[in-house]
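PT: before anyone asks, these are the final sequences, not the draft ones from last week. 1034 residues across everything. Please model them as a single complex and drop the result in this thread when it's through.
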Amino acid sequence: MKRDRTPQTLVLILAAILAVGPFAPQWTVFLLTVALAKGLVVLGLMILLRCGLVSFGQALYYCIGAYAAGMLGRLFQVSGVFTLMLAGMVAAGVAGFVFGFLLARYRSIFFGLLSLAISMILYGLLVKTEALGSSDGFNLLPSTLAGIRPADAWVRYMVLAVAAAVAFVAALLVHRYLKTPLGRLAPAIKDNEIRVEYMGASARHAIHVKYVIAAALAGLGGALAATTVGHIDPEMAYWTTSGEFIFITILAGTGNVIAPFLGALIFGIIQTVAFDISPNTWQMVLGSSLLVVILFLPNGLWSLFTRRKAS
Amino acid sequence: MNAIKKAVAAAAVAALIPGVAAAQDAPLKIGVVSFLSGPAAGPFGVPARNAAEITFEMLNNGKVPAPYATKGFGGHKLDMNLVDESGGTTTQVTEYRNMVQRDNVDMVIGYISSGSCLGIAPVAEELKKLTVFFDCGTPRIFEERSYKYVFRTAATATMDSVGAALYVRDLRKGKIKSIAGINQNYAWGQDSWSDFEASMKQLVPGVKVATSQMPKIFAGQYNAEISTVLADKPTVVHSSLWGGDLEALILQASPRGLFRRSTVILTTGETAMYKLAGSLPDGVVIGARGPYGPYAPHNALNTWFSKVFKDRYGVPPNYAAYQMAQAILGTKAAWEKAQAANGGKRPSQDQVIAAFEHLTFKSPAGTVQMANGGGHQAITGTAYGVTKKVHGKMTVAHIKRYPAAMVNPPDGMKAKDWIANGFKK
Amino acid sequence: MEQFIAVLIDGIIYSAWLFVAAIGLTLIYGVMKIVNVAHGSFYALGAYAAASITGALLAHGMPPYLSYAVLLGSALLVTVIVAPLIERGILRFMYAKDEVVILLITYALFLIFEDVIKLIWGVNPYFVAEPYGLLGSFDIGDLTYPYYNLILVGVAIVCGAGLYWMLKHTRTGKLLVAVIHDTEVSRAMGINVDRLYLITFTFGSLLAAIGGAYTAPTISVVPGLGVEVIVLSFAVVVIGGLGSLPGAALGAVIVGLVRSATVHYLPEAELFVIYLVMAMVLAFRPRGLFSIAEARKI
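LR: through. Structure below.
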């Protein structure tokens, strides 16, 4: 049995980020933070994908997390990053728990499309709500950590450090979860659900649990994104946002908990480079490069690492 | 694009040559953000980009009439760093940071979407980079907080709605029984309609609202909305639809007689009126979001701008193009005023900002005063007119102009409060 | 009463538009089990081709009544060139892969097409309004409707009936029904499934292009045209049941009438009423209204 090197790798990555962060250019720090936020959402999607379920509406929880953070700032003047992220995670988790009762009954494409419908309903409701700024959204308060507002030059690093720490803990926990009995049930459910039931496990219960976890992770990511970008709007619940997350999920592959973050980072880099070199046709550059990855690396980018180990 | 990249490379090499003189003459790198893809590209984004291109080029060659005859900004050549405004707010904030921190632009001029403006403004403050918004309509930017580094050189959307109400009241001599609206169901459409409705209620007491239709943005199919409005027979129909949606509405409403039965006011109609001249009968009220396009005054700057734009791009400039030119020239005016105050030497960003505040400058659309938002938000007058075909050509007639003070709230007062207060200061 | 008639007429017109836009999507899914996000791109291609070709021919003096046929011809032309290219060139190698991966490939294609269309046709809008106004209008009470809307309804009926007849009474159609029910067994029986896939993809995309082509005279053809259509088509198809032709018709009628009623009576809810209907239908009939029975593997 191969030794599991993931926890050590995670520690190394966290240490690297914390060490290099203060010296890296601010725009890369920002890019990395956004990648970590999106990576959290994709981590949740990865858990679901292992069951064979693709949620086309994960943007719903991303948006709920972001708006929870935004509302706390607007109503109660809360600006501490940890509090906001916790709020986002809890709000989205609760929503996931409620919707999970309905969604856990569905499979394959219908699961995806029903989640899409729900996310678009939220989008519509938010756009109608003028008190929340309608389609323009609103801005968050400047971030603080434990009540302290760091000097302007250090804010980006502070948010990155918090993001990296949270992502580290999330990745580690998910990695452990995937080794538990419920976690190991995922490929079985994907293969043949009826046999799973014959074995005495409840597929629906397992899926419900995974759905809540994925929702909580997406809410966490949404709150983090909101804090980093400083602005939230209903577009965060639109189907194209969900589409972007699914893209990153397949791009990354499901091999390891590190994969979602790597995929999110690569996606962010490709998009930024596309904007830079061809402002008039960046969509084509993005679509083409993603097509190339799918065609030549069907198991996602992570398969690059596993292939090397095999050879 | 390639020529600009070569120029930047050349400038970079030149900048490496030691010497204060070289640094003093270094070109100014200006980030320009506009929609280059998606539905906003055709009516606004690309015309604005074209306006930026031609204005930069003419400025660099010193071919702009007075008072902008010096080359570039005070002798410093201008380099454009173009960015597409598509992709959502997170992408835009990312690209803004890239422009400022990776590409080291000297300033940013851009942004059409109110969502972008709202998201970018705090980032501009955080990064302390001079940013000039040339379009975006929402009044929220300077109503919600004050900014040091952010300026907007066009009036807000409040002006469009208040001006619209004033014009239809004048056109119908106050005899308006009911109004209806067809507006897109997002911030722009919601605000445009609510400001128009509130203004109408102040100007024509007792006016009724027949129906307010709010189709989804980019819906494209308006048969049901048109039927509902036709059935209610309102005196005035207000629409702030833009781009492809506006054109679809015109195409679908015209054969059904909407323009004949009611007075229809299209607040962004200028972008569609030439292309759809065949579908627009006489008497449709057309707005250009200010004194742009057919409402621009006959001054030397306007004559110059319309001519060079039409010669290069084959069509007359529309209001998005005017607004971009206005932003660039306004920034130039501020920059050169700061330079003069600095004894002819290259001014610092703070000096430019100080010069920009409360500045009054000339643009192809007339005089612009940076009077609101603590000196950061421009106010201009506005104008409306009706369509009229003269010898088969589309023109505007019955033009009425409204001065800036009549259609913009006073500094420090929220637009909605100002309207609710009967337009009193 | 008159408002009720208006709701009905507007609903039927909208339903017809939805049906033509969505029918190709359900056909492709039913046969190939592919969720084709690029469906919106074919709609846009059809609209752009129709607008530019018909517009150019009209400017050169073509008799206006021919424009109705030219709209169809443009859609046909552009689909016959592009669809087989995509199916043979890219999709063919991907059928063994996961459903989601194929969906993402079509999503990538959609992104690419957005910019390709922009490169070919530019960002300025295209108009071809002559066919819309040519036939005049008719009055129902106080309301005027152009006759062109009836053409749209006619196209929907012809497409639906034609497809139905083809599936039931032609050899290719019956083979397609076999493939819809079970691809593996069909292949085992000697049916040339690959060729049928090519035919289906082309035909399904053609239907999308026809939708775009016949809508073009009523709108201004601008970039981003296909985006809205994708989600609406999905809603219709899911409500009716993926892969079911009568389902798509029923889904279109339901969505069209509900939306029309909402616009007339409750305009504020228009923004999300379609998704609400979709969610409710799925909540009670998880596979849509008419779904194809699928055997469960034990």
